[in-house]
Amino acid sequence: MRTKLFVLIFTFSLGCASAPKVRDVELDFPTPEEWTAAENPPGEIRDVWWEDFGEPDLTRVVEMALIQNYDLLAAATRVDCSQPPSRW
């Protein structure tokens, strides 16, 4: 039994180790001038930046996702709890 298990593990390990090399692909496409961004965007980015698109459907979907994303809510709660209380 141990021999079969060893052969099985060795076979899978050998298969992963002998994977073909991945070559980098270089794309030679010009970037349109209107796609370049300013180094320092004007103003600050709002917390509700998706509202700047003026799409009510997008706003509805993002707000629904924020409300129903319990992982995100738990992470935000952990961040809030990790912050020391302010000294005013």
Write the layout of secondary structure elements.
Layout: H1 2-17, H2 56-68, H3 70-82
Order of SSEs: HHH
> Helix fraction?
40-55%
How far apart are the first and last residues' alpha carbons, in Å?
68 Å
| Mean pLDDT metric | 79
Measured by DSSP, the beta-strand proportion falls in under 5%
State the secondary-structure class.
mainly alpha
Shape: extended
Largest sheet: none
**What is the multimeric organization of the chains shown?**
single chain
Uncertain stretches of 5 or more adjacent residues:
none
Question: Helix segment count?
Answer: 3
Question: Could you tell me the number of beta strands?
Answer: 0
**Spatial extent as radius of gyration:** 25 Å
Structural write-up:
The chain is mainly alpha-helical and 88 residues long. The chain has a domain at 47-82. Helices cover 48% and strands 0% of the residues. The protein is built from three helices and no strands. It has helices at 2-17, 56-68, 70-82. 0% of the residues are buried. The model has no long low-confidence stretch (mean pLDDT 79).
List keywords for this structure.
3 helices, 48% helix, 88 residues, mainly alpha, single chain
In short:
By secondary structure, this protein is mainly α. It is built from 3 helices and no strands. The model has no long low-confidence stretch (mean pLDDT 79).
